[in-house]
Specification:
Number of domains: 1
CATH architecture: Alpha-Beta Barrel
Strand order of the largest sheet: 1-2-3-4-5-6-7-8
Number of helices: 9
Oligomer: single chain
Bound molecules: zinc ion
Shape: globular
CATH topology: TIM Barrel
Radius of gyration: 17 Å
Length: 260
């Protein structure tokens, strides 16, 4: 069964001891690609490094809203150069996080806008992190980004975990929604309701590894192989086979990130 983990952080220190084996477990189970995501300049570089070492790993580059305060002009310039590397498929994760507020909100908005401009310039889709900042994210996307990308899928809302209303807002704008292990947690009714109405051809499956392990591994390190648990849960909710969920989300991921 073919599948793709569309969002993982294999450069995390949590994988230093057994990266090789972790990647091998995913590939021998049928992974046909893994997208490794940058959250600042250093991890964007490591992401590109992983992509050059492994044929089936692709990279995204970006500065996470938590680290927005590190996005100087110099960093943007370095990101721009990294963004032209061959296996960079997206700009992200970028966005707004008003839950943890690790960078000041105005600085987060500024960094988000600057990286939307970078995505436009590089002609790459975006990977959006949004927590408790939905109306600002939608406003910024509407004003600064969507008018410039008409005709192709704009990106993915990663770690989507809120309800039907925001699912519809993003779908209306052409976004894919990234569903991860949170869909396996009990009491996540609003996410389950959202998954019911999101068309299968708009879903990407992801782990966000090493974070957010699915229920049966909860509290432990997550890894790309466990994206199959996410597929299984979506299959159950949508009354589809797990093969169908894996196949369609693989096609979706290939299409969004323009993978061969
Ligand atoms: Zn992430």
């Amino acid at each position: 069964m073919n599948f793709i983990d569309s969002h993982c952080h294999l450069d995390s220190p949590k994988f230093h001891a057994d990266l090789e084996q972790t990647v091998e477990r995913a590939f021998s189970a049928g992974a046909v690609a893994l997208i490794n995501i940058g959250v600042d300049l250093a991890t964007s570089k490591s992401s590109v490094g992983l992509a050059s070492r492994y044929r089936l790993i692709y990279a995204s580059i970006g500065v996470h809203p938590h680290d927005a305060k590190t996005l100087s002009n110099d960093v943007i310039e370095k990101m721009r150069r990294l963004g032209r590397e061959q296996k960079v498929v997206a700009v992200g994760e970028i966005g707004l996080d008003y839950y943890r507020n690790l960078s000041n909100q105005a600085i987060q908005r500024q960094a988000f806008i600057e990286q939307l401009n970078l995505a436009k310039e590089l002609n790459k889709p975006i990977i959006v992190h949004c927590r408790e900042a939905y109306s600002d994210v939608l406003d910024i996307l509407d004003e600064q980004y969507l008018p410039h990308v008409s005709g192709k899928p704009p990106g993915v809302i990663h770690s989507f975990s809120v309800g039907v209303r925001y699912a519809q807002e993003f779908l209306k704008r052409g976004f894919y929604l990234g569903i991860n292990g949170m869909v396996t947690y009990p009491n996540n009714t609003q996410l389950v309701e959202a998954v019911k109405i999101i068309p299968m051809d708009k879903i990407l499956i992801e782990t966000d590894a090493p974070l957010l392990a699915p229920l049966i591994h909860r509290g432990k390190r997550n890894e790309p192989l466990y994206v199959l648990e996410v597929a299984q849960q979506i299959a159950k909710i949508k009354n589809l086979s797990v093969e169908e969920v894996c196949q369609t989300s693989t096609n979706n991921t290939r299409q969004l990130f323009n993978l061969q």
